[in-house]
Amino acid sequence: MGQCLKNILDRPVIKEEDNYLVVRSEHQNILSTIRAKLGQQRIGDTARMIFLKNSGPSTFEFYLNKQAAFTGRVNFVTNLDQEDYLGPITVTVTAEEVQTIIDWLAGSTPRSEER
């Protein structure tokens, strides 16, 4: 699991808390690897839709497939009931300006504006 986090986050400091691996950061750059992969995989519009759907005033959350993360790919889990036995990686982003982080991660495109 630690390798999965290293493959999708930029220099994560991984700690174990209550039998979970947890990464905390005060800098959005920890998400820069995910941002780059969204562009490389051309899934920015899908990512933006997922981020907005799961956002609140100061947080947004999304789930990633562990097997994909292990190979260095971003693959969103949208139906937790259908996820494999490994379960997803849960990413929770808390920020004062959630929309700014979402725009930075998966900026809007004409296609995403249509949705």
SSE layout:
Elements: H1 2-8, E1 14-17, E2 20-23, H2 32-40, H3 44-53, E3 59-65, H4 66-70, E4 88-94, H5 98-105, H6 110-114
Helix pairs in contact: 3-5
Can you give a write-up of this model?
This protein has 115 residues and is α+β, with helices and mostly antiparallel strands. It has one domain: 50s Ribosomal Protein L5, Chain: A, CATH 3.30.1440.10. It contains 6 helices and 4 strands. It has helices at residues 2-8, 32-40, 44-53, 66-70, 98-105, 110-114, and strands at 14-17, 20-23, 59-65, 88-94. The strands form 2 sheets. It has a two-stranded antiparallel ribbon with strand order 1-2. A two-stranded antiparallel ribbon has the order 3-4. A hairpin with a 2-residue loop joins strand 1 and strand 2 (20-23). Helix 3 (44-53) runs antiparallel to helix 5. It is globular. The termini are far apart. The mean pLDDT is 91.
